[in-house]
User: Which sequence fits this backbone?
């Protein structure tokens, strides 16, 4: 399967839902995550399931989930991936972190970077991630707006 085909046909695996693996939700605290981890780890630990490859795989996933969700930076990245809708696995996404994250600048509104004031009226919203109440000011005297409209910038 080519790279494009794998993206077009990609569906997220249950193995990528770390919250479900641990039995908690996105609002779980680190203490709750650790408590869920300990309870499940006792059931899936290789010493209790000698020779059971499925239990070993589940135990490794459990450890991975706890490791990511208990680290604030990793958890933040994981949550960004989960909510991004990007059609690649989390591990691929992390591997492409610099490239993918820099191309996701549009996914969140950055008010300090907006060219137009919130009070602008009329026209189209050119910033994909912008709030819907931001409009063009049809009578704007701003030199920047004028240059933009005349394709000078």
Assistant:
């Amino acid at each position: 399967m080519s790279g494009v085909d794998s993206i077009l046909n990609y569906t997220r695996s249950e193995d990528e839902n770390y919250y479900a693996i641990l039995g908690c939700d996105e609002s779980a605290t680190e203490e709750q995550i650790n408590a869920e981890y300990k309870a499940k780890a006792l059931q899936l630990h290789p010493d209790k399931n000698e020779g059971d490859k499925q239990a070993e795989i589940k135990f490794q996933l459990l450890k991975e989930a706890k490791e990511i969700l208990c680290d604030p930076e990793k958890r933040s990245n994981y949550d960004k991936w989960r909510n991004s809708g990007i059609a690649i696995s989390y591990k691929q996404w992390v591997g492409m972190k610099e490239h993918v994250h820099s191309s996701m600048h549009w996914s969140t509104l950055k008010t300090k970077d907006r060219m137009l004031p919130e009070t602008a009226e009329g026209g189209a919203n050119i910033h994909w991630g912008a709030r819907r109440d931001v409009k063009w000011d049809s009578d704007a005297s701003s030199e920047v707006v004028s240059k933009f409209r005349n394709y000078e910038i």
Helices lie at 3-8, 18-22, 30-44, 53-69, 72-84, 90-95, 97-103, 143-149. Residues 117-131 have pLDDT under 50 and may be disordered.
